[in-house]
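Re: the request from the purification team.
They wanted to know what the chain is likely to look like in 3D before they choose a buffer screen. I agreed to run a prediction and write the result into the notebook, where they can find it.
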Amino acid sequence: MRASLIQIAVDQQESVNSRRQRVASLVREQRGADLVVLPELWPVGAFAYELFEAEAEPLHGPTYELMAKAASDAGVWLHAGSVVERAGDGGLYNTSLVFSPDGELAASYRKIHRFGFDKGEAVLMGAGDQLVTVALPELTLGVATCYDLRFPELFRGLTDAGAQALVIPAGWPARRVGHWTLLARARAVENQAYVFACGTGGTHAGVDQAGHSVVVDPWGEVLAEAGPGEEVLTVDFDPGRVEETREQFPVLKDRLLGLDAPRR
């Protein structure tokens, strides 16, 4: 299989609509990939809190429409990153969208762990409460977002739910880039799963972004890693490597904590 992680630079001088159009074009250029991944909150920027209210959109809003069409045009599974979703009750959520190659919405995920320590996203947005997996023909994806990466119990839950690959769009700051790469590898090793972690590049809202989108295999080896700027990171990978790793080094069967620990 082939995955393409599109590391977008969010420039506040570029309008949200222009960025949507540009990103849709980039997705269409990935024809031949099986999975395409975009970053967290790329339409507005993960730290552009002052734009959240004004740029919030319904689930089936303009980003949804453009990304559904782009996925269909390219014939790819598209994790379209996340948007500021305005729910029916007026509340805001950091919501990821996953589309099938025919442009249908395969899943949506409201970010569970909100960043900000009692400010920013943590107070402006509601928290999701559902784990989400998506079954591709050859691989089951577990969906998480940015700050979720720091909470291993979420990923263990996704593994228990059948995830073989963990997809993590992010708007991670450059000052903590070491944590980003360390945690991405840790989540791969402890769950014996692929990790596809896609971040933003450049600077927005005065915050330098880490970039360094990364693909990690189930043994914890980095297959590909981007730099700090805008970049498309493409890697070929073997989905069979997950079960091969779990069979050769069957650590998951030795779990003693957790009622849902898998047994063989």
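For the purification team: Helices lie at 16-28, 49-55, 62-74, 121-124, 152-160, 177-191, 241-248.
Please add any questions underneath this entry.
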